[in-house]
Design a protein that fits this description.
The structure is a homodimer. By secondary structure, chain A is an alpha/beta fold. Helices cover 43% and strands 21% of the residues of chain A. Chain A has 16 helices and 17 strands.
Chain lengths: 436, 436
């Protein structure tokens, strides 16, 4: 059976899953939890095969680390499921209750989105997280993971799906796509799939967006900024910038550009550059930055090599230990730069000046606007969402890390006693709005 | 200056408008209100020109009615503005406040979407409603109205924009596009325009969706259903169906298909058909419907002409006094039909049976699920939203009539004291989530 036919069947099962009680969905999560624990040796065995193949194919060590699913990763996903179990039911919440007129009442109730397709990188823990979020939120999910962990995914998926079905969720709650050509098939299911969440490279997400009529939620770019204000604590600034750039440079929430207030640059920039060089970060910067370093007294900073940047280069997302540097005249110029060159993901100001901070937090048009902390905090787990299906840089529906709340929509229920619009149009009746 | 350059300037002004106080935005609404009242003769004069041109161009009388802007329409838009003035500020609301750890706090705050393009039909009152909603919600708006009311729109827009600027809103808050080719220019502004709301024919909305990278909110189809359950009150059913079909057949929330429980059809269908014939409604139906009518005792019903339908015809949105009829075996078959053939806009069940109603309201996957009332209630004003920018049949972001709440998004503010992710990754610190 192909994806298109499976998606049609899922669409029919979606209202059944949406109607299932929170008790049943939580029971399914508990069953999944148990299945993962009791089936772990099977999973580890499959993962060893994937890792052996990856080593054979000379896949980069940094990626091999992501492919691994061991006791530590298992403990992480189990703790994610435990956190989800404690969270309230995201569906069936009444977010508006209004009497429109005698005998005519309107209710807005949260409901699952329906059928969601998630295409994710080769990370077995992502498969567990995404499945668990979809089960909790009553959404049917089509999962397509990276091929490098195909064996691990297959075992994990079978454990998860079997547990969900045993707990009484409908047949169509979960589906795994395994072949790469099934992605294109999935993209064509705009009648039956309500939302696509692609994760991966910018080019991949753009490809998805350009080849489907299904709404896409995702982030295309993560060009994050840190602005070091004149009132920043220099030590804190260096510590935060190092964390944001070097703790995990391949992450979308890693910093790509550091903007420094011109008035503190002669003192601060050489110090920062020494720390960055020590951490092995490659530097890019404007002529002004490179000139300032060339003329400074610190020998190490003076010796730093800075690749010269054109204005347009400030759109660059390195995803590597590389960083763009620029001097600005205060918070206003910093905000203009960020709103123009940024990708509206996450941007941070380092300052002890409340006024500058307020201006920054108000005026920067990004999903995350931070003060005195690392951009790397932009993450569903760190926000306390239990897990995330991805991070959205779009402004509609969900913005930033997307957890349970981003997986629901709502519908309006209107209950009358034979009410017709003609009566209101003719003035025989009129509306009397009253929130209940 | 072209739309693209204007949109760039608006994008820069958008954070300023977003930062404006509710007092300033309400003052702008009051200034707009006064400007419309004191400038009304100018508006009426321009409208008379548009109406004269429409009559000359032999535009259909039903459309000419929509073009009109008179004392009655003025009173309607003024009352809409008055209602908006009483509504709370939709932006700056904190919808999540959580301490992640000592000294690290997360806040989710509602903010305007930014720059919104609205392309709407020739209805001068729509221009006022949309401008007022955008001003209240702090969004910059690019407005392109139907050309048949170009004179009226120009006068209205000038009054509104001048009043908004006098009240201190930024220059880029409102822009009018007047030329048809400016629509294509607008579609290309994906860097600066955050959302497009097209209103109009299905084909037009589809065109917009297929020719832009900007997110589009709108409805492509309005195939609304009424299901007459075996436990329906026949008189109420006929009254509701007549209202839903004939009160304004060109509206997207008019009913297109009536499904009737097979067990009551021999009695109910002839009665319904008599009323529909009397109201001048053209009938389409299955063989079974036409056979049942041909064999019934009622002479008028027996004489009804029913155009035979194929299954695929049930996707049809007539937007005319025409109706599809089909018999079903109870609420389950009705729901399957609606979820498959409908457009997820608005669907109503007529019944006194709570169990059937609950099943219908739960299982129908539409923006509006109604019991014992006309589908025509699907409308922002009737829901008490003051006004609407449109009705969304998409499930993401906003669903159903879109008022102020559909025009906002949110951002996350994270306030730390130099917090870095490395400390948490290394186990030196750990998260302690606590909602504030």
């Amino acid at each position: 059976m192909n994806i298109r036919e499976e998606a049609q069947k899922m669409k029919q099962d979606a209202p059944l899953l949406a109607a299932s009680s929170i008790e049943k969905r939580n029971a399914a999560l508990r069953a999944i939890r148990e299945a993962l624990l009791s089936g772990k040796e099977q999973v580890f065995e499959a993962n060893r095969e994937d890792l052996a193949a990856a080593a054979e194919n000379q896949i980069a060590p940094s990626i091999q680390k992501r492919l691994k699913f061991d006791e530590g990763k298992l403990a992480d996903v189990i703790s994610g499921i435990d956190q989800l179990l404690t969270l309230p039911d995201p569906i069936g919440r009444t977010t508006l209750a209004r009497r429109l007129d005698e005998g005519l009442s309107l209710f807005r109730v949260s409901v699952p989105i329906g059928v969601i397709g998630v295409i994710f990188e080769a990370r077995p823990d992502a498969l567990v997280q995404i499945s668990a979020l979809c089960v909790k939120s009553g959404n049917c999910a089509i999962l397509k993971g990276g091929k490098e962990t195909a064996n691990t995914n297959r075992v994990l998926f079978t454990l998860i799906r079997d547990a969900a079905l045993r707990a009484g969720l409908p047949q169509g709650c979960l589906l795994q796509a395994e072949l790469h050509n099934e992605i294109d098939e999935l993209l064509s299911c705009d009648r039956d799939v309500d939302l696509l969440i692609p994760r991966g490279s910018n080019a991949f997400v753009q490809y998805i967006m350009n080849h489907t009529k299904i709404p896409v939620m995702g982030h295309a770019d993560g060009v994050c900024h840190i602005y070091v204000d004149r009132a920043a604590d220099p030590e804190m600034a260096i510590s935060v910038i190092l964390d944001a750039k070097t703790q995990y440079p391949a992450a979308c929430n890693a910093v790509e550009t550091v903007l420094i207030d011109r008035s503190i640059a002669p003192d601060f920039l050489p110090k920062l550059v020494c720390s960055l060089r020590e951490a092995g970060v490659k530097l890019h910067g404007t002529k002004e930055v490179s000139g300032l370093l060339a003329g400074c007294t610190d020998e190490i900073a003076r010796g730093a090599s800075v690749a010269l940047m054109e204005e347009a280069d400030f759109h660059t997302e390195y995803l590597e230990p590389e960083l763009s540097l620029k001097l600005v005249d205060g918070v206003r110029e910093a905000v203009s730069h960020i709103n123009y060159y940024g990708s509206h993901h996450t941007d941070s100001i380092l300052t002890s000046d409340d006024e500058a901070a307020d201006y920054f937090l108000q005026m920067v048009d990004s999903a995350g606007v931070y003060r005195n902390c690392s951009t790397r905090f932009a993450d569903g787990f760190r926000y306390g969402f239990g897990a995330e299906v991805g991070i959205s840089t779009g402004k509609l529906h969900a913005r930033g890390p997307v957890g349970l709340e981003g997986l629901v929509t709502y519908k309006y229920r209107l209950i009358g006693e034979g009410h017709v619009v003609g009566d209101y149009a003719a003035g025989r009746r009129s509306f009397h709005f009253e929130d209940l």
